Amino acid sequence: MKIFYVTLNTIDEARCIARAALEQRIAVCCNWFPITCAYRWGEEIKEEPEVVLLIKTQDGRRASIEAIVGGVVDYVNCVVELAPSSVNAAFLDWLDRDAPAG
Q1: Per-residue model confidence (pLDDT) at position 101
Q2: Lower Cβ count inside 10 Å, N or C end of the chain?
Q3: By C-alpha distance, which of 89, 88, 87, 71 is closest to 79?
Q4: Which CATH number is 30's domain given?
Q5: What domain count does the chain have?
Q6: Which residues lie closer than 8 Å to 6 by C-beta, 6 or more apart?
Q7: What single DSSP character describes residue 75?
Q8: Full residue range of the structural domain in which residue 78 is found
Q9: How many angstroms separate the CA atoms of 81 and 9, rounded?
Q10: Residues 12-64: pLDDT tens digits?
């Protein structure tokens, strides 16, 4: 199992990416929530609203996730692939059933 941590500008972008991943059976579940992002831009420290999208999926789906994200956003964002060390069996069963490995 993998979880992708994706930063976006809007909830609409998160919803669009999540729906595409779910419709294509690339993901079994997605969550999104608003955050505040602090970052360095040149000599300035900036703070801006941002949205985090979590995509729960199988191993080997990075290219598919990046293609979906790239089809929605036209700016540089963060797409991080995380590998949980432990996941409950019932969730893994659901993942295998509804978003089977490739």
Answers
A1: 87
A2: C
A3: 71
A4: 3.30.70.120
A5: 1
A6: 14, 17, 52, 53, 54, 55, 65, 69, 77, 78, 79, 80
A7: S
A8: 2-98
A9: 19
A10: 999 999 999 999 999 999 999 999 999 999 999 999 999 999 999 999 999 99
